[in-house]
Design a protein that fits this description.
alpha+beta; four-stranded mixed β-sheet; 8 helices
Protein backbone atom coordinates (compact mmCIF):
# COMPACT_ATOMS: atom_id res chain seq x y z
CA UNK A 1 0.00 0.00 0.00
CA UNK A 2 1.37 3.42 -0.93
CA UNK A 3 2.04 5.81 1.99
CA UNK A 4 -0.79 8.24 2.74
CA UNK A 5 1.40 11.16 1.83
CA UNK A 6 -1.30 13.78 1.35
CA UNK A 7 -2.96 12.84 4.64
CA UNK A 8 0.38 13.45 6.43
CA UNK A 9 0.54 9.93 7.80
CA UNK A 10 3.63 8.79 5.96
CA UNK A 11 4.54 6.09 8.50
CA UNK A 12 0.97 4.76 8.95
CA UNK A 13 0.63 5.96 12.52
CA UNK A 14 -3.05 5.01 12.33
CA UNK A 15 -1.94 1.40 12.78
CA UNK A 16 -0.43 2.36 16.16
CA UNK A 17 -3.66 3.92 17.43
CA UNK A 18 -6.51 2.09 19.09
CA UNK A 19 -9.97 2.09 17.55
CA UNK A 20 -11.13 4.60 20.18
CA UNK A 21 -8.16 6.89 19.57
CA UNK A 22 -8.82 6.92 15.83
CA UNK A 23 -12.52 7.57 16.40
CA UNK A 24 -11.78 10.53 18.67
CA UNK A 25 -9.26 11.95 16.19
CA UNK A 26 -11.67 11.56 13.27
CA UNK A 27 -14.53 13.20 15.18
CA UNK A 28 -12.45 16.25 16.04
CA UNK A 29 -10.96 16.37 12.54
CA UNK A 30 -14.42 16.42 10.96
CA UNK A 31 -15.62 19.12 13.36
CA UNK A 32 -12.58 21.29 12.59
CA UNK A 33 -13.14 20.90 8.86
CA UNK A 34 -16.89 21.52 9.01
CA UNK A 35 -17.25 24.14 11.75
CA UNK A 36 -13.93 25.83 12.55
CA UNK A 37 -12.02 26.26 9.30
CA UNK A 38 -14.93 27.92 7.41
CA UNK A 39 -15.13 30.77 9.97
CA UNK A 40 -11.68 31.09 11.48
CA UNK A 41 -10.16 33.43 8.87
CA UNK A 42 -12.79 36.09 9.57
CA UNK A 43 -12.33 35.79 13.34
CA UNK A 44 -8.55 35.85 13.03
CA UNK A 45 -8.58 39.00 10.91
CA UNK A 46 -11.00 40.73 13.27
CA UNK A 47 -9.18 39.58 16.41
CA UNK A 48 -12.39 38.01 17.67
CA UNK A 49 -12.86 34.71 19.51
CA UNK A 50 -15.52 32.43 17.94
CA UNK A 51 -17.41 31.90 21.19
CA UNK A 52 -20.40 30.42 19.38
CA UNK A 53 -18.34 27.25 18.84
CA UNK A 54 -17.70 26.63 22.54
CA UNK A 55 -21.00 24.79 23.29
CA UNK A 56 -20.31 22.40 20.42
CA UNK A 57 -16.80 21.76 21.70
CA UNK A 58 -18.27 20.94 25.11
CA UNK A 59 -20.92 18.66 23.64
CA UNK A 60 -18.24 16.69 21.83
CA UNK A 61 -16.25 16.30 25.06
CA UNK A 62 -13.19 18.39 24.23
CA UNK A 63 -12.81 19.90 27.70
CA UNK A 64 -11.06 17.86 30.38
CA UNK A 65 -11.24 14.91 28.01
CA UNK A 66 -8.67 12.90 29.98
CA UNK A 67 -10.35 13.47 33.36
CA UNK A 68 -12.74 10.97 35.01
CA UNK A 69 -16.27 10.44 33.77
CA UNK A 70 -17.66 10.96 37.29
CA UNK A 71 -17.17 14.70 36.73
CA UNK A 72 -18.90 14.70 33.36
CA UNK A 73 -15.64 14.36 31.43
CA UNK A 74 -14.90 11.90 28.63
CA UNK A 75 -12.43 9.75 30.59
CA UNK A 76 -10.17 9.28 27.55
CA UNK A 77 -6.52 8.28 27.65
CA UNK A 78 -3.79 10.83 27.12
CA UNK A 79 -3.06 9.86 23.51
CA UNK A 80 -6.68 10.57 22.59
CA UNK A 81 -6.47 13.88 24.45
CA UNK A 82 -3.30 14.74 22.52
CA UNK A 83 -5.01 13.97 19.23
CA UNK A 84 -7.78 16.40 20.19
CA UNK A 85 -5.17 19.12 20.71
CA UNK A 86 -3.49 18.22 17.42
CA UNK A 87 -6.68 18.57 15.43
CA UNK A 88 -7.82 21.76 17.16
CA UNK A 89 -4.49 23.42 16.41
CA UNK A 90 -4.74 22.23 12.83
CA UNK A 91 -7.72 24.59 12.70
CA UNK A 92 -6.27 27.45 14.77
CA UNK A 93 -3.70 27.83 17.54
CA UNK A 94 -5.97 30.15 19.50
CA UNK A 95 -8.76 27.56 19.64
CA UNK A 96 -6.35 24.91 20.86
CA UNK A 97 -5.11 27.40 23.44
CA UNK A 98 -8.66 27.98 24.70
CA UNK A 99 -9.26 24.23 25.12
CA UNK A 100 -5.79 23.64 26.57
CA UNK A 101 -6.23 26.31 29.25
CA UNK A 102 -9.72 25.09 30.14
CA UNK A 103 -8.50 21.50 30.42
CA UNK A 104 -4.85 21.48 31.42
CA UNK A 105 -4.48 24.71 33.36
CA UNK A 106 -7.83 24.99 35.15
CA UNK A 107 -9.65 21.64 35.29
CA UNK A 108 -6.41 19.73 35.97
CA UNK A 109 -5.35 21.76 39.05
CA UNK A 110 -8.90 21.70 40.44
CA UNK A 111 -8.99 17.93 40.01
CA UNK A 112 -5.43 17.39 41.32
CA UNK A 113 -5.14 20.00 44.05
CA UNK A 114 -8.73 20.94 44.84
CA UNK A 115 -11.10 19.80 47.57
CA UNK A 116 -13.99 17.41 46.97
CA UNK A 117 -16.34 20.38 47.09
CA UNK A 118 -14.30 22.34 44.54
CA UNK A 119 -14.14 19.38 42.16
CA UNK A 120 -17.87 18.71 42.45
CA UNK A 121 -18.73 22.35 41.90
CA UNK A 122 -16.46 23.31 39.03
CA UNK A 123 -15.48 20.27 36.95
CA UNK A 124 -18.94 19.27 35.64
CA UNK A 125 -19.69 22.91 34.86
CA UNK A 126 -16.41 23.34 33.02
CA UNK A 127 -16.80 20.10 31.07
CA UNK A 128 -20.12 21.45 29.76
CA UNK A 129 -18.64 24.95 29.21
CA UNK A 130 -21.18 26.38 31.62
CA UNK A 131 -18.12 27.83 33.33
CA UNK A 132 -14.92 29.05 31.66
CA UNK A 133 -11.58 29.23 33.44
CA UNK A 134 -8.24 30.97 33.15
CA UNK A 135 -4.81 30.45 34.76
CA UNK A 136 -2.94 33.30 36.40
CA UNK A 137 0.78 32.61 36.86
CA UNK A 138 2.73 34.86 34.46
CA UNK A 139 3.36 38.40 35.65
CA UNK A 140 4.49 41.60 33.89
CA UNK A 141 7.99 41.32 35.40
CA UNK A 142 8.40 37.59 35.78
CA UNK A 143 7.03 35.43 32.99
CA UNK A 144 9.96 33.02 32.97
CA UNK A 145 10.75 33.19 36.68
CA UNK A 146 7.55 32.42 38.62
CA UNK A 147 9.53 31.88 41.81
CA UNK A 148 9.93 35.65 42.08
CA UNK A 149 6.23 36.44 41.64
CA UNK A 150 5.10 39.70 43.16
CA UNK A 151 1.42 38.85 43.59
CA UNK A 152 0.88 38.36 47.32
CA UNK A 153 -1.80 36.66 49.36
CA UNK A 154 -2.11 37.52 53.05
CA UNK A 155 -4.30 35.62 55.49
CA UNK A 156 -6.75 37.89 57.30
CA UNK A 157 -9.23 36.09 59.50
CA UNK A 158 -10.96 33.39 57.48
CA UNK A 159 -10.07 35.01 54.16
CA UNK A 160 -7.06 35.68 51.95
CA UNK A 161 -6.37 39.13 50.55
CA UNK A 162 -4.68 39.18 47.13
CA UNK A 163 -2.70 42.07 45.65
CA UNK A 164 -0.84 41.98 42.33
CA UNK A 165 -1.22 41.49 38.59
CA UNK A 166 -1.01 38.73 35.98
CA UNK A 167 -0.14 39.11 32.30
CA UNK A 168 -0.81 37.26 29.02
CA UNK A 169 -3.75 35.33 30.45
CA UNK A 170 -5.71 33.29 27.90
CA UNK A 171 -9.50 33.48 28.50
CA UNK A 172 -8.90 36.15 31.15
CA UNK A 173 -11.87 38.47 30.65
CA UNK A 174 -14.31 35.71 29.67
CA UNK A 175 -13.46 33.44 32.60
CA UNK A 176 -15.92 32.66 35.38
CA UNK A 177 -13.09 31.51 37.62
CA UNK A 178 -9.35 32.16 37.64
CA UNK A 179 -6.77 29.77 39.10
CA UNK A 180 -4.43 32.37 40.58
CA UNK A 181 -1.02 31.67 42.07
CA UNK A 182 0.30 34.00 44.77
CA UNK A 183 3.18 34.14 47.21
CA UNK A 184 2.28 33.73 50.87
CA UNK A 185 4.41 33.62 54.01
CA UNK A 186 4.48 29.83 53.56
CA UNK A 187 5.35 29.87 49.86
CA UNK A 188 3.32 29.73 46.65
CA UNK A 189 -0.36 28.83 46.98
CA UNK A 190 -3.24 28.53 44.51
CA UNK A 191 -6.63 30.24 44.75
CA UNK A 192 -9.91 30.10 42.86
CA UNK A 193 -10.90 33.71 42.26
CA UNK A 194 -14.42 34.01 40.95
CA UNK A 195 -15.65 36.57 38.46
CA UNK A 196 -17.25 39.53 40.19
CA UNK A 197 -15.13 39.27 43.34
CA UNK A 198 -14.50 42.84 44.60
CA UNK A 199 -10.97 43.94 43.78
CA UNK A 200 -10.62 41.53 40.84
CA UNK A 201 -10.60 43.14 37.39
CA UNK A 202 -9.31 42.34 33.93
CA UNK A 203 -8.77 43.92 30.54
CA UNK A 204 -8.00 42.52 27.13
CA UNK A 205 -4.60 43.00 25.51
CA UNK A 206 -5.18 44.64 22.10
CA UNK A 207 -3.23 44.71 18.81
CA UNK A 208 -1.86 41.17 18.93
CA UNK A 209 -0.11 39.76 15.87
CA UNK A 210 -0.46 36.16 17.06
CA UNK A 211 -3.27 34.05 18.55
CA UNK A 212 -5.60 36.73 17.24
CA UNK A 213 -8.73 34.58 17.57
CA UNK A 214 -7.95 34.00 21.25
CA UNK A 215 -8.82 36.19 24.24
CA UNK A 216 -5.62 37.34 25.98
CA UNK A 217 -5.87 39.53 29.06
CA UNK A 218 -4.28 41.22 32.04
CA UNK A 219 -5.65 40.49 35.52
CA UNK A 220 -5.46 42.85 38.48
CA UNK A 221 -6.00 42.18 42.19
CA UNK A 222 -6.40 45.12 44.57
CA UNK A 223 -7.23 44.05 48.12
CA UNK A 224 -9.17 41.17 46.58
CA UNK A 225 -10.68 39.09 49.39
CA UNK A 226 -10.96 35.34 48.72
CA UNK A 227 -12.41 32.88 51.26
CA UNK A 228 -10.32 30.02 52.62
CA UNK A 229 -12.75 27.62 50.92
CA UNK A 230 -11.45 28.91 47.57
CA UNK A 231 -7.83 28.01 48.27
CA UNK A 232 -6.61 24.85 46.54
CA UNK A 233 -5.83 22.82 49.70
CA UNK A 234 -3.37 20.37 48.13
CA UNK A 235 -1.34 22.96 46.21
CA UNK A 236 1.75 23.76 48.24
CA UNK A 237 4.84 25.25 46.66
CA UNK A 238 5.94 26.13 43.16
CA UNK A 239 5.74 22.50 42.05
CA UNK A 240 1.93 22.75 41.84
CA UNK A 241 1.72 25.47 39.14
CA UNK A 242 4.70 23.97 37.32
CA UNK A 243 2.87 20.62 37.14
CA UNK A 244 -0.02 22.46 35.49
CA UNK A 245 2.37 23.87 32.90
CA UNK A 246 3.52 20.31 32.21
CA UNK A 247 -0.08 19.36 31.39
CA UNK A 248 -0.47 22.33 29.05
CA UNK A 249 2.89 21.74 27.37
CA UNK A 250 1.90 18.13 26.74
CA UNK A 251 -1.02 19.35 24.63
CA UNK A 252 1.14 21.96 22.90
CA UNK A 253 3.56 19.22 21.80
CA UNK A 254 0.67 17.66 19.87
CA UNK A 255 -0.60 21.05 18.75
CA UNK A 256 2.66 21.89 17.00
CA UNK A 257 2.17 18.80 14.85
CA UNK A 258 -1.35 19.90 13.93
CA UNK A 259 -0.20 23.37 12.90
CA UNK A 260 2.52 21.88 10.71
CA UNK A 261 0.03 19.47 9.11
CA UNK A 262 -2.22 22.40 8.17
CA UNK A 263 0.70 24.31 6.64
CA UNK A 264 1.77 21.28 4.63
CA UNK A 265 -1.68 20.74 3.17
CA UNK A 266 -1.92 24.41 2.17
CA UNK A 267 1.50 24.27 0.52
CA UNK A 268 0.71 21.02 -1.27
CA UNK A 269 -2.54 22.33 -2.72
CA UNK A 270 -0.82 25.53 -3.82
CA UNK A 271 1.92 23.58 -5.58
CA UNK A 272 -0.65 21.45 -7.36
CA UNK A 273 -2.69 24.39 -8.59
CA UNK A 274 -0.01 27.01 -9.28
CA UNK A 275 1.30 26.77 -12.85
CA UNK A 276 4.69 28.23 -13.66
CA UNK A 277 6.37 28.02 -17.10
CA UNK A 278 3.66 25.70 -18.34
CA UNK A 279 3.84 23.18 -15.50
CA UNK A 280 2.41 22.92 -11.94
CA UNK A 281 4.89 23.73 -9.19
CA UNK A 282 4.47 20.22 -7.84
CA UNK A 283 6.50 18.98 -10.85
CA UNK A 284 9.51 21.09 -9.91
CA UNK A 285 12.19 19.12 -8.10
CA UNK A 286 13.01 22.04 -5.82
CA UNK A 287 9.41 22.12 -4.54
CA UNK A 288 9.32 18.34 -4.19
CA UNK A 289 12.39 18.46 -1.97
CA UNK A 290 10.84 21.17 0.22
CA UNK A 291 7.56 19.26 0.58
CA UNK A 292 9.43 16.03 1.35
CA UNK A 293 11.44 17.85 4.01
CA UNK A 294 8.19 19.06 5.60
CA UNK A 295 6.84 15.50 5.71
CA UNK A 296 10.11 14.33 7.27
CA UNK A 297 9.80 16.88 10.04
CA UNK A 298 6.10 16.20 10.65
CA UNK A 299 6.64 12.44 10.79
CA UNK A 300 9.36 12.81 13.42
CA UNK A 301 7.09 15.11 15.44
CA UNK A 302 4.19 12.66 15.20
CA UNK A 303 6.31 9.78 16.47
CA UNK A 304 7.66 11.91 19.32
CA UNK A 305 4.17 13.01 20.39
CA UNK A 306 2.76 9.50 20.21
CA UNK A 307 5.54 7.99 22.34
CA UNK A 308 5.15 10.88 24.81
CA UNK A 309 1.46 10.01 25.10
CA UNK A 310 2.22 6.34 25.65
CA UNK A 311 4.69 7.26 28.42
CA UNK A 312 2.06 9.49 30.02
CA UNK A 313 -0.56 6.76 29.91
CA UNK A 314 1.94 4.30 31.41
CA UNK A 315 2.69 6.71 34.25
CA UNK A 316 6.39 6.89 33.34
CA UNK A 317 6.44 10.34 31.72
CA UNK A 318 8.81 12.88 33.26
CA UNK A 319 8.37 16.62 32.83
CA UNK A 320 11.63 16.74 30.88
CA UNK A 321 10.06 14.37 28.32
CA UNK A 322 7.33 16.97 27.81
CA UNK A 323 9.82 19.81 27.54
CA UNK A 324 11.79 18.02 24.83
CA UNK A 325 8.68 17.15 22.80
CA UNK A 326 7.26 20.66 23.06
CA UNK A 327 10.61 22.19 22.16
CA UNK A 328 11.04 19.97 19.12
CA UNK A 329 7.47 20.08 17.84
CA UNK A 330 6.90 23.81 18.24
CA UNK A 331 10.25 24.47 16.59
CA UNK A 332 9.25 22.05 13.86
CA UNK A 333 5.92 23.81 13.36
CA UNK A 334 7.67 27.17 13.03
CA UNK A 335 10.19 25.73 10.55
CA UNK A 336 7.39 24.22 8.44
Amino acid sequence: MAPRFEGVDFYDLDSLLSEEERAVRDTVRQWVDDKLIPVINEHYLEGRFPKHLVPEMAELGFFGANLPEEYGCAGLNNVAYGLIMQELERGDSGIRSFASVQSGLVMFPIHTYGSDEQRARWLPQMARAKAIGCFGLTEPDGGSDPGTMKTRAEKKGGDWVLNGAKMWITNGTVADVAVVWAMTEHGVRGFLVEKGTPGYTGRDIPHKFSLRASVTSELFFAHCRVPESNRLPKAEGLGAPLSCLTQARYGIAWGGVGAAMACYREALEFCKNRTLFGSPLINKQHMQVRLADIVRRITLGQLLALQLGRLKDAGTMHHTHVSLAKWNNVRMGLDV
